[in-house]
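Q: What does the predicted 3D structure of ABC transporter domain-containing protein look like?
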Amino acid sequence: MAKITLDNLAHSYLPNPTSEDDFALKQLDHDWVDGEAYALLGSSGCGKSTLLNIISGLLTPSQGRILFDGQDVTHAPTAERNIAQVFQFPVVYDTMTVRENLAFPLKNRGADPKYVAERVQQIGNMIGMEAELDRKARGLTADAKQKISLGRGMVREDVNALLFDEPLTVIDPHMKWELRTQLKKLHHEFGHTMIYVTHDQTEALTFADKVVVMYDGRVVQIGTPEELFETPEHTFVGYFIGSPGMNVIPAKVDGDRAYVNGSYVQLGRGYAPMDGKVEIGVRPEFATLSETEGLPVKIRRVEDVGRHKIIRAEFFGSDINIIANEGTPISADMNRVSFDPAHVNVYANDWRVKGEVA
């Protein structure tokens, strides 16, 4: 296990980058704490896999350094970094049995045969393939092969880090939940540093201690699931986290009020004048429909999703979502919406402004 330090790290696939836009991974300085589980979360093309491949040694960064426990490994090959990596598509040896595939990383390092047998049995049980351990990998489904690939990544206990690049893409939904649970259990038992790349917020939020949200080659926020939900530091985080995501509404902010089309929304903090694009962000969970309180809103439709209702509405020309608890009556007369001031965030040019306590 290792503390992983990213020092002035950036990468461009162009030979002579001249501007920030030329970088697939924009400058990043961060310490990945030894023994924590991280998720790299973002949409396709945001730089997640580029960063993971730099950490693993498959890619040398254009600038900066990467250190494991203070040792510079920027130019060290993957084999010297003592990491295990599981890729999006399964890589298994078809001519070997499941048992032989799982044992391969241990045998390759001269592990004691008794330990190898015990560890392989343990991992086989963990991935639900104990009945297929002596079956050849050839002919197994992609789902089963990916479980083997996951198991082979987890079989070593002495690695500096475990890296997962969208490993559950080909796994059926029920097994995804099982394997995420097993990965979490493995992390608690052995304390490996784990980095898990995904575009699925559910996978990220249920797996990780800290979620690293990436957008357009940049890390826009690192935080716990609660921090990402309560205080998104960038409008993309608010949009990407949550179902539905945060409402982002153009506004003019003056002190502890945000003005939308001449009407004001009360804020929980005070703000100095701001230039550029100014918006407020409100989670649907912190918006409330009413017949009498708040600003005018036009309901378009109501979706009952079981645990709650999602109200799709129009608010001064902006689309907004409101979440009401299951059982809450929704009537045609409810054409006003109010926001909890303590949970209204203010953004200038997409970045959250903290403001002063009102």
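A (community wiki): The structure tokens above were generated from the sequence. The mean pLDDT is 90. Residues 70 and 333 are 63 Å apart (CA to CA).
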